[in-house]
């Protein structure tokens, strides 16, 4: 997978061509698909660095494509941005809950769209010198496989829960406020409330136990030293 390869999925040929032209001007490689079924086929054959995905498409809509990608071991880590004419809050929430990393409403200028793409890619490329495999306390967090291991037991956490755990564990002992966690894990272009962090921490604790992530009242969370 290379972050310089973008898969653009839309059933409007003129829009596909316009986005392809502008992405190539910025130095990206571009793959194209005109429906959801074709998108999955192309993604599996040529794993892209990011998918720009329409929602309303023939054969298979974008929400289903996103859901299938998040369920595929080889595709689930690829960042996905929805680019759609559906601007209602219900669909946006559904799209983000399905696992998208950003949600962009048409029409949008190609300059702004490329800026959003670069922002998502920066977030995924930003490692801050944290290794992909972390051994903390009695667990191992493997970012390459998106798996948490404790002894002989493996935990397959949903993507955002895993990324939140990995981010905190990689900065063990450092307190991170909710807004920082939202920006680093969900992205600064996505509107989600502080409560989202609390819910994900609770779910992590339910699966792994409450002795890893510590609540710092009035501030945020930290991974216990």
Structure overview:
- This protein has 225 residues and is an alpha/beta fold.
- The strands form three sheets. A five-stranded parallel β-sheet has the order 2-1-3-4-5, sandwiched between helices. A four-stranded antiparallel β-sheet has the order 6-7-8-9, covered by helices on one side. A three-stranded antiparallel β-sheet has the order 10-12-11.
- Helix 6 (159-169) crosses helix 8.
- The protein is elongated and about 55 Å long.
- It has helices at 13-25, 36-45, 62-70, 89-98, 110-125, 159-169, 178-186, 195-208, and strands spanning 2-9, 29-33, 48-53, 80-84, 102-105, 133-136, 139-142, 147-150, 153-155, 176-177, 213-216, 220-223.
- It contains eight helices and twelve strands.
- The chain is 41% helix and 24% strand.
- It folds into two domains: 2-125, 3-Layer(aba) Sandwich (Rossmann fold), CATH 3.40.50.2300; 133-223, Arc Repressor Mutant, subunit A (Orthogonal Bundle).
The number of helices is 8
Main sheet, how many strands, which sense, barrel?
5 strands, parallel
The number of strands is 12
Low-confidence stretches: none
Q: What topology, given as strand order, has the largest sheet?
A: 2-1-3-4-5
Give the arrangement of secondary structure elements:
Layout: E1 2-9, H1 13-25, E2 29-33, H2 36-45, E3 48-53, H3 62-70, E4 80-84, H4 89-98, E5 102-105, H5 110-125, E6 133-136, E7 139-142, E8 147-150, E9 153-155, H6 159-169, E10 176-177, H7 178-186, H8 195-208, E11 213-216, E12 220-223
Helix pairs in contact: 2-3, 6-7, 6-8
